[in-house]
User: Which sequence fits this backbone?
């Protein structure tokens, strides 16, 4: 069950490309659009098991085009590259904020190991 209370504030910062979340305990998190996109909880990104996760690359310029609330427990983020299948629960958003540095460093290492880039391929939709 999702036992994390909803954020007390949700602000989409289009110019700086980040989603700002404030929580009742005073914590605030600023999650970039790229970070959220490459850590989408969708099966398309995460796979159906840990060894099936798909490395996302070329997402530096991705934008969030829409945020839809899902009941009282999550947000559906719609990205400019067409990705819209991940439901970001309050628990997962809080976890992303708390583990952002570790996750980001692991992501950059995985990109390097795969010979991939954060930059989109020429002509790619972003």
Assistant:
């Amino acid at each position: 069950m999702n036992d994390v209370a909803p954020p007390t504030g949700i602000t989409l910062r289009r110019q700086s490309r980040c989603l700002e979340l404030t929580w009742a305990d005073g914590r605030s998190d600023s999650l970039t659009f790229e970070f959220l996109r490459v850590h989408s909880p969708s099966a398309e990104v995460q796979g159906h098991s840990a060894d099936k996760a798909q490395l996302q690359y070329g997402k530096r310029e991705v934008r969030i085009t829409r945020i839809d609330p899902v009941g009282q427990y999550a947000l559906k983020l719609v990205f400019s590259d067409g990705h819209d299948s991940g439901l970001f629960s309050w628990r997962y958003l809080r976890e992303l904020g708390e583990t952002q540095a570790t996750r980001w460093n692991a992501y950059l290492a995985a990109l390097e190991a795969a010979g991939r880039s954060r930059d989109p391929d020429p002509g790619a939709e972003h």
Notes: The chain has one domain: 9-114. The chain is about 25% helix and 25% strand. The first strand starts at residue 9 and ends at 13. The longest helix spans residues 100-114.
